[in-house]
């Protein structure tokens, strides 16, 4: 028999488990797993960049990249050299397939492995099952030549309200939903433009 008064019941899990605490249902993690420091120089219609990428999960790593790409709005490619991995990549820009889906293709050569191959990546701002996750980047311009970009993610289950009359089920039932949000990446971008 249901112990909730007046036919009201609050469940946080559909399998009948006890409701979890608010801390477990709503969690926001502000400790990024990726820190990027990007130095950019714009010169003669091209942007030359040095990226220092620090990863702290699952293991601590540091990657350095040299990036060259045209500045024009119609740019079609970018060139990346990773000296520590002895890897060279020529990548296309992200090609919109649908409103939320992008395709990127490229060619990759590893000097270490003496191998060349094709690569492709299908990305979206929606992740997981396409409904319960949002991934996005937010940019903040501090002053000319200094920008911050934040990569964030939110996994959620929306609250659900149900009820019934005359069926033996509760008059009102509420699943309070869940939210797990995290700040995954912080990028500091320093750009020097020639006049």
From TrEMBL:
Residues 21-192 form the DUF7781 domain. InterPro entries: DUF7781. Pfam families: DUF7781. Residues 1-20 are annotated as: Disordered. Coiled coil: none annotated. Signal peptide: none annotated. This is Increased rDNA silencing protein. It comes from Actinidia chinensis var. chinensis (Chinese soft-hair kiwi).
């Amino acid at each position: 028999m249901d112990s909730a008064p007046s036919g009201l019941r609050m469940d946080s899990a559909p399998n009948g488990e006890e409701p979890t605490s608010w801390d477990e249902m709503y969690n926001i993690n502000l400790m990024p797993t990726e820190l990027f420091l990007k130095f950019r120089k714009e010169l003669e219609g091209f942007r030359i960049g040095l990226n220092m990428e620090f990863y702290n999960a699952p293991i601590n790593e540091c990657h350095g990249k040299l990036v060259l790409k045209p500045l024009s709005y119609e740019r079609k490619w970018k060139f990346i050299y990773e000296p520590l991995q002895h890897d060279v990549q020529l990548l296309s820009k992200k090609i919109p397939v649908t409103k939320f889906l992008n395709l990127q293709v490229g060619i990759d050569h590893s000097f270490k492995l003496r191998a060349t191959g094709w690569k492709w990546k299908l990305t979206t701002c929606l992740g997981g099952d396409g409904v319960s996750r949002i991934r996005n980047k937010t940019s903040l311009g501090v002053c000319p030549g200094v920008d911050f970009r934040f990569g964030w993610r939110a996994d959620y289950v929306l609250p659900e309200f149900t009820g019934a009359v005359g069926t033996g089920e509760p008059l009102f039932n509420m699943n309070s939903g869940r939210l797990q949000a995290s700040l995954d990446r912080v990028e500091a971008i320093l750009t020097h433009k020639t006049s």
